[in-house]
Design brief:
The complex is a heterotrimer of chains A (162), B (550) and C (106).
Chain A (H helix, E strand, L loop, with lengths): L3 E3 L2 E2 L4 E3 L13 E5 H12 L5 E4 L16 E8 L6 H12 L5 E6 L6 H7 L3 E3 L6 H7 L21
Parallel strand pairs in A: 3-4, 4-5, 5-6, 6-7, 7-8
Antiparallel strand pairs in A: 1-2, 1-8
Chain B lengths: L5 H23 L4 H9 L3 E3 L4 E5 L5 E3 H14 L3 E4 L5 E3 L7 H10 L16 E2 L14 H11 L14 E4 L13 E7 L5 E7 L11 E7 L4 H15 L10 H8 L1 H15 L8 H8 L15 H9 L1 H10 E3 L5 E6 L10 E3 H14 L3 E4 L5 E7 L3 H10 L14 E2 L14 H10 L3 H7 L4 E4 L13 E8 L2 E8 L11 E2 L4 E2 H18 L7 H8 L2 H8 L1
Parallel strand pairs in B: 6-7, 7-8, 16-17, 17-18
Antiparallel strand pairs in B: 1-2, 2-5, 3-14, 4-5, 4-13, 8-9, 9-10, 11-12, 12-15, 14-15, 18-19, 19-20, 19-21
Helix pairs in contact in B: 1-2, 1-4, 3-4, 3-12, 6-8, 7-8, 10-11, 14-16, 16-17, 16-18
Chain C lengths: L2 E8 L5 E7 L2 E5 L8 E2 L4 H12 L3 E12 L2 E4 L2 H8 L20
Antiparallel strand pairs in C: 1-2, 1-4, 1-5, 2-3, 5-6
The chains are: A alpha/beta (162), B alpha+beta (550), C alpha+beta (106).
């Protein structure tokens, strides 16, 4: 077990990233996720596979473009190139709240203890923690705060309407 | 004022525990300084020139006497016996130890206070009119809207790692006492002729190295749509705000580079998606929050008090103070009292623990236990009876809080400058003190009338020099502190950015330069009613330039 | 060639401190006059000791400061560093019963 947390539990990660260098024919077996660009250019071929499929977005990509393929996408990977870059929070929130995506939303990159609380509120349910993070401690971070004010992916109403 | 619910209390306690854990992880070495910095800043903790600095939120400038006493206790117990009120109505402590900060936060939480989001690239403490709820020129009370914004923005999961800091100000009166034009979002409550209430939404104001006046992007937003509209603006900003250059990351640059029209379209398009969401305020949501801001039990009094009138005549010093440091109140028989934090004996905005305790006592005795902090770094007792003014003034005088200079030349806004600040390139406080010393004559200052003079110790402009009638910016020129003058700025409803008048002055020449500028005004004004700003706008920079540089 | 000392902020207290060396080894003091000085080209040892102290979470944000030796002690060349070393140049507000010491290394 490494640095992967899903649904608040440390887990093995069944997914393999596909870097885009191989041919579609030579893809590794099992569940793979591919860059957004590859997805757009080769999704018809990819969809013929019998395994689960995922896509990894840049934090400048528009999540709305994934909507037509939701039924074939089991995973959307969103990136935090550095801790302070919070664009993927908006991407996750739109995927869950506006477009109703129900598959796995995963955070990768500078994914740290003190952000997972906010990430889960925006709809992330899987986290590739940066290797130096202490997983048992991180698991507490999901519950550090129990009071929330805003409606978000985890809460339908603002506090003044509950 | 707003009374905390059980949930609000629990949130603060959880936040203190979380921060205590972050401090302990930092001290153990589990958190690097770079990463801890992101966390401590989100809790108002900076590392300044000499020590840590803790910025405590004063939500939209409202303080109870009990809270003020806690602030005094913190100053004595964990700091060096004083605090500093900032232009965003918050209070800063200059000497706390890192290991004491969780204890300070415990003490604050006990009186419904905190340091949440007083720094960092997130939505900061909302500021407002220090006369909210009592001003005679008020259209609608901004405080309930500020409180709704506080709840919406506190730990907003999507907007806690924005491209840059984000400041919101709300004003509900005809006169703008909250500088809404120089905030990332400025909100003004207005009424249509038929009496219908709405919001003007300004976006992209700000100071710093690229000062800009906010653009009006919505001229009449129904109040029920306030939070959905803010959510739309913030989402556009979080997606598109620049992250490649720290100095171009504020929303003002996004608005400027995108163009006002296009930016408005982006916001409106996003708003169409969220306007019917659960964030849309219902009548009862607004009413429930408004219920927290009821008037105190005012007595039925006349707006004329014969004792007060006699005191004005018999005590000329009292009359001078009453002339300058009082404001009309919506309730007859009451006045708003400005406590000047601009004495010549203490740095701008600084208050000692002893003064804080005494102010708390005065608030209990004379003003229903309520205190407000102001954008211009003063304090306010908002509900004082006419008949109590003379005794209150007597007590304020002994506390050195009765300098009769509100909105006058020596009511100087000043950042802490290089005496405290790690970013500053020049000192501000000594310049403010030199000016206060030089212009210590009541008659002269009073004759100058309404004027603003603000000082910043670096280009980041925390002293708001751009929006002062006379602005002073300290910079470092080859190891020497020099001071540049800007003229013609205003932070009010006629907001404008001042223009640099010419080459900078050294510290020993700047006071005389200001005196010369004031002479030009006095010699050229049409009559004593014409303010410095009006005269400057009429005359242009030429006569001022001529006087300074020949 | 300029004489240098190493300065940083103490992690726990936040106060300004200077790297000092005695027979026991290196330590940090708020007293600039105790600071170890070195010519710019010989400041490598000081630099590595300062960096080590950062790694050990004793201090944060260490850097070199140009100084001169005067009859009153070590004096930073730049105004900003003099203010850091000697404290604010203004009279600080005073209150009764303040627990934290107001003394600063002079």
């Amino acid at each position: 077990m490494g640095n992967f947390i899903k649904d608040r539990k440390p887990q093995d990660d069944p997914w393999t990233p596909y870097t885009g260098l191989e041919d579609v024919d030579n893809l590794p077996t099992g569940d793979v996720y591919v860059p957004f660009e590859e997805w757009q250019s080769q999704k018809e071929a990819l969809k013929l596979r019998n395994n689960r499929l995922g896509v990894i977005l840049e934090n400048t990509d528009d999540v709305a473009e994934l909507v037509p393929d939701f039924d074939r996408l089991d995973l959307v990977v969103l990136q935090f190139p550095k801790m302070a870059d919070g664009r993927a929070f908006t991407q996750a929130k739109l995927l869950r709240e506006r477009y109703g995506y129900t598959g796995e939303i995963r955070a990768v990159g500078d994914v740290l203890h003190d952000q997972v609380f906010y990430m889960q509120r925006c709809g992330f349910n899987a986290f590739e923690m940066r290797p130096d993070q202490d997983i048992p401690t991180v698991l507490h971070a999901f519950d550090e705060m129990t009071v929330t004010y805003q409606p978000s992916a985890d809460e339908e109403l603002p506090i003044w309407r509950r | 004022m707003y009374q905390y619910s059980q949930d609000d209390h629990q949130l603060l306690q959880e936040r203190v525990s979380q921060f205590r854990d972050q401090v302990s992880r930092r001290l153990k070495g589990d958190l690097s300084e770079d990463e801890f910095k992101q966390q401590r800043l989100r809790n108002g903790l900076y590392l300044q020139l000499h020590a840590y600095m803790l910025r405590v939120a004063v939500p939209y400038g409202l303080l109870s006497s009990e809270q003020m006493r806690t602030l005094a206790h913190i100053a004595r117990t964990y700091d060096r016996g004083y605090g500093h009120f900032s232009t965003r109505q918050n209070i800063q402590y200059n000497w706390p130890k890192l290991e004491d900060v969780p204890k300070i936060l415990d003490d604050l939480a006990a009186v419904e206070m905190h340091a949440i989001q007083t720094s960092g690239n997130c939505i900061r403490n909302t500021t407002s009119d220090p006369l909210a709820g009592v001003a005679r020129d008020e259209i609608a009370d901004p405080r309930p809207y500020c409180e709704l914004i506080r709840q919406w923005s506190t730990f907003h999961p999507e907007f806690n790692f924005l491209p840059r800091k984000f400041k919101i100000a709300v004003s509900g009166a005809i006169h703008d006492r909250a500088a809404v034009a120089v905030h990332d979002i400025g909100i003004r409550l207005i009424k249509k002729d038929a009496g219908e209430l709405g919001l003007e939404i300004y976006v992209g104001g700000g100071l710093g190295r690229t000062p800009m006046i906010g653009k009006l992007i919505r001229d009449f937003l129904p109040p029920h749509d306030m939070l959905t509209y803010l959510e739309a603006i913030l989402r556009v900003y979080n997606k598109l705000g620049r992250r490649d250059n720290l100095y171009k990351a504020r929303i003002k640059i996004l608005v400027h580079e995108t163009g006002e029209e296009k930016f408005r379209e982006l916001v409106e398009a996003e708003w169409q998606e969220v306007k019917e969401s659960k964030l849309r305020l219902r009548d009862e949501d607004i009413k429930n929050i408004q219920a927290h801001f009821k008037d105190p039990d005012y007595e039925n009094l006349s707006d004329f008090d014969s004792d007060f009138d006699k005191e004005l005549i018999s005590d000329p010093d009292f009359a001078k103070w009453a002339d300058n440091n009082l404001e009309l109140h919506k309730q007859d028989g009451y006045r708003v009292v400005y406590l000047s934090l601009k004495s010549k004996n203490q740095p701008t905005g600084d208050v000692t623990a002893d003064q804080m305790d005494a102010i708390a006592d005065l608030a209990d005795k004379y003003s229903h236990g309520a205190i407000r902090s102001t954008h211009r770094q003063n304090l306010v007792l908002s509900d004082v009876r006419l008949k109590d003014l003379h005794s209150l003034w007597g007590e304020l005088k002994t506390l050195d809080l009765a300098t009769p200079n509100y909105n006058h030349l020596t009511d100087i806004i000043s950042c802490p400058g290089m005496d405290y600040c790690a970013l500053a390139t020049a000192r501000s406080i000594p310049i403010a003190q030199a000016l206060t010393e030089r212009f210590d004559t009541y008659d002269y200052v009073n004759d100058l009338g309404d004027i603003s003079l603000n000082i910043s110790g670096c280009i980041n402009a925390c002293g708001h020099h751009h929006v002062a009638n006379i602005g002073i910016l300290g910079v470092n020129k080859k190891g020497v502190e020099v001071y540049q003058i800007t003229l013609g700025g205003s932070a009010r409803e006629d907001a404008s950015i001042g223009k640099i008048i010419g080459p900078a002055f050294t510290a020993d020449k700047i006071v005389q330069a200001i005196a010369d500028l004031l002479d030009v005004y006095l010699e050229n004004r049409e009559d004593p009613e014409e303010t410095f700003l009006t005269a400057y706008r009429r005359l242009g920079p030429a006569p001022f330039k001529e006087k300074l540089y020949g | 060639m300029t004489l240098q000392v190493y300065t940083a902020s103490l992690l726990k207290e936040g106060l300004v401190a200077y790297l000092c060396i005695d027979t026991e080894g290196s330590y940090w003091s708020t007293d600039l006059n105790k600071a170890a000085t070195a010519e710019t080209d010989q400041a490598e040892t000081l630099k590595s000791l300062a960096e080590q102290a950062e790694r050990e979470n004793i201090v944060i944000a260490a850097y070199a400061v140009d100084v001169e030796l005067t009859e009153n002690g070590t004096r930073p060349l730049e105004n900003r560093e003099r203010i850091r070393a000697y404290g604010p140049t203004i009279t600080l507000p005073q209150s009764s019963d303040t627990k934290q010491a107001i003394v600063r290394a002079a």
